[in-house]
Amino acid sequence: MRIAMVTSECEPYAKTGGLADVVDALARALGRAGHRVDVYLPRYRGIAHLPSELSALSVQVPLGTEEGSGVRRVPVTIRSGEGDGYRVRFVEHDPSFHRDGFYGGPEGDFPDNAARFSILGRAALETIRAEARPVDILHGHDWQAAPAILSLETRYRVDPLLARTASILTCHNLAYHGWVPRDRAWVMDLPDAIGDRHGVDLLREAVRHADLVNTVSPTYARESLTPEYGAGLDDLLRERGDRYGGILNGIDTALWDPAEDAALAAPYSAADPAGKERCRTDLCARLGLDPNGPILGLVGRLDPQKGFDLVAAAAPGLVRSGARLVVLGTGDERLVAGLHELARANPGRVVVLDRFDRDAARRIYAGADLFLMPSRFEPSGQGQLIALRYGTIPVVRRTGGLADTIRDADAEPATGNGFVFADADPAAFADAVRRAIEALADPGRRAAIVRRGMTADPSWAGPAQRYARLYARAAELRGGASPAG
Ligand code: GLC
């Protein structure tokens, strides 16, 4: 099939979170399976790794005008290069994208995001028209791709080239909607029926109009049908019925392989796990961490979503009873300040790295004994999958993708690969950590739990097949290509 993906992030070009890894890995896996994938991405300032040969194409993107009389055309350059298994197509429009930040700055979201992401989406549609080659699937990721989907559904269907292109929206996180107040919505050039008199909730409208909608795990898909997790979209998601579901993400098993990881002090694998101990020693030496106690690692955005408040509340007690804690992440200033204070009070026992550091992250995945992910909600999550692969036992809250990947080793002794707790409170979390620490003290049991994690297959092969089936179903709904096409 021919697939056009529209996204605001893609590794290795632009990344703030898991979305970037997912788009890159999924596009590559689909490419390997024989599909032709184009990934449309804004050409932000500071994109460092460009493919060596870029070709350029000029397109005119129609945007609305304030008076609502017709459209104005914005010249945009599409620079395309072959990535690894897919083609990446940078949408170049410097007034929109050549600035610091992808979505906003210290003042909040950019006020012109509706225009910026309309340019991204419509540039993709105009490129398809300019090249006069139909695509089977328009696959948009998160609210930033909503203008692409809404433009296809309301403005571009009249073009025979796009009449049968099926639209798919993947929601990586329902907490971010992309809100456009009514007095700015004109720029998107969408029919007035889109949104209400206050404005346009981009994610909501894309959920309503896409042919098929999915999120990134079966459990989060179910949770999001309830008011507690639905972020105001649960009613609409329920309405979509079987046109909404969950596909669990994979991880790139070549990028995340402790046997091949150049950041580590020693390689290791399930068959030959000895190197992990050297990675632990190395981690402690680098960070000035006292190795005589279980090491709890945490890597991620310091965001209330991730349950860092639970960690902050439970950490003093855990550290008093002998645990070591190493945290790598940036985010919420109050959380960061609280963690720094904890580190000052516990030299050699608590280390906080308040920065973005790929190699340090890898050394924590490898060198820690336990990996903490007490998320309040987690659409999919990749930290727990990386931890499993690196032989570090995950302690997670039973929610979203965490519930779909981690089984509690006390409740399910024969298959458990981690430790799981249900209630989002510090005591329940601390209890799960204590149960995990007990397991560490029993070498045979620990080795069995670790082996299950290291030998599982978290690769993209399975998920990519599931997406291919989703595409086939969407194409069928539109009367378009057959799966083989
Ligand atoms: C978002 C979600 C995370 C998911 C990622 C990629 O960042 O919060 O759970 O793994 O998207 O889909």
Descriptive notes:
The chain is an alpha/beta fold and 485 residues long. It folds into two domains: 2-250 and 461-477, Glycogen Phosphorylase B (Rossmann fold), CATH 3.40.50; 275-455, Rossmann fold (3-Layer(aba) Sandwich), CATH 3.40.50. 37% of the residues lie in helices and 19% in strands. The strands form four sheets. Strands 3-4-5-2-1-8-9-12-13 form a nine-stranded mixed sheet, sandwiched between helices. Strands 16-15-14-17-18-19 form a six-stranded parallel sheet, sandwiched between helices. Helix 10 (308-320) packs parallel to helix 11 and helix 10 crosses helix 15 (426-440). The radius of gyration is 23 Å and the shape is elongated. Alpha-D-glucopyranose binds next to helix 1.
Overall helicity: 25-40%
β-sheet strand percentage: 15-25%
CATH topology of the largest domain: Rossmann fold
CATH architecture annotation name of the largest domain: 3-Layer(aba) Sandwich
Please give the domain count.
2
The chain-level structural class is alpha/beta
Quaternary structure of the protein:
single chain
List all distinct small molecules, including ions and cofactors, that are bound in this structure: alpha-D-glucopyranose
Mean pLDDT across all residues, rounded?
A: 95
Distance between the termini: 6 Å
